[in-house]
Amino acid sequence: MAMPGMIDSTMHMTGVLSLPMSREGSGTSWLPDASPMMANHFAAGAWDFMFHYRAFVYYDRQNDADPSRRGDDQIGSVNWAMLMAGHDLWSGRLQLRAMMSAEPWTVGAAGYPLLLQSGESYHGRPLHDRQHPHDLFMELAAIYSHALGQNLAFQAYLAPVGEPATGPVAFPHRPSASGDPFAPLGHHWQDATHISYGVVTAGLFSRSWKLETSIFNGREPDQDRTNFDYKGRSLDSYSARFTANPDRTWSLSASYAYFKSPEALDPGLSEQRISASALNTRSIWTSGEWASALIYGANRFQHTDSWSNSLLFESNLAVDAWNSVFGRIEYVAKSAADLDITDRPPEARFDVGSIAFGYIREIARYPGGSLGAGGRYAIDLVPRSLAPLYGSRTPTGFSVYLRFRPRALRSAGTSRMADSPNGTGPAR
């Protein structure tokens, strides 16, 4: 009989080709096999269920909350919850997913304050220095995988709401970002398409690589975060991604995507995106875990010859079962249109960046999960020409928050126990 906190050996902790479920990222993307599985598991008949969630309740203060310097403050919550159901079907494996967020109410349509952030729109103007909320429906998808041989399999992904095969694992699901409640400044250069209203993906994969392609709806979600954004749209965009997992600790990917008319404010403009990423997760010390990501993303809009580049490095170090530190360094080339700077040509570019770091301490447990308390501090970097708008070339922001999440399951083929908050130490 399984001990409390351990995974029963009858569970479906591996998929087609005996790949560990810990490899599954957002959409059809891959994580390193050594990634923790933060979830609650239960079974009903022939179905296996996983319940994933993450919620941060925060106070966020940017640039002394001074609107004249594009600052603001807010109390709110960024959050998501996913239910996954798996069942053997036709000698393959069917997985159903439903992921939702309460951010339309806990953050609001105008988003949360975040200096130098950009993307999407609100009341007919580009959102700037704020991060838009997630939609109520983040993913509604079916995935079917079927082996074609001992080391080759096929996968199909059908999603009324889902993620096409482009970019790395989306930031809410990366272990390297697990302690940071806020989106990267390069989100719309790297992984913004994790909510698309209509996605079809097909791929081939082995135990060490995956090649896939998608057709999808390329329009960004609108400011009504509770509806389905299908009106007047079709599967008009496409992407391709190659991923390699050479061992348990690494996942490497590269992708290309074409977006037909992504922005509602400029419907005649289409966009291309390229990305490359390297994700790493490994055990460290007696009960620690270290997850890192290096991500490059670039956009090129129709009728332009140059790419707008971004680069991110982020890392989360669980020192032990109770204490974690994290950091993120970013560079992004943003346009005057991105930052809603009206006295410059829309295509004018500004090199901006950010250095963020923080700490989380697990302070309590509840059945199946844990509560942590933490803080984040960021120093943003702007060129001299933008200093008058932000009051400085190094404006700052900070937040304090509580984090709710499940404890980690033990993935197949590992010896780790699952009963610590980080899934990295023995039960206490």
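Next protein, fold it too.
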Amino acid sequence: MGGLYPEGFYETLYHEMGHATGHASRLNRKELNRVSAFGSHDYSLEELVAELVAELAAAFLSAEAGIDQAVIQNQAAYLQGWMEKLQKESTAFVTAAARAQKSADFILGRRPEEKNTEEAA
């Protein structure tokens, strides 16, 4: 992530914004709002999904902003590092992609007027 080019600033900013949308007052992602024991299966899965959400949201926002394809390819390379874990948790990528789209939509102001929550009652 990041780099010594202007787009790198935005790549990192978008990644961190993707994380920030998980707060209970925003999209209320359980990965950020539930306590799990460090190193446990739940903790690892939560970390995986949260990181994928942030990086995919960054890729979506970079594309939306018209940022150079090289930056998006850098994001893809970063995600490649998670492939081994993804193979063990086959639904994690689909879950993360859906949440990343919600994250990008939230940042761009594309949301319904009612309160957004991932964990519908």
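About the second fold: Residues 6-107 form one domain.
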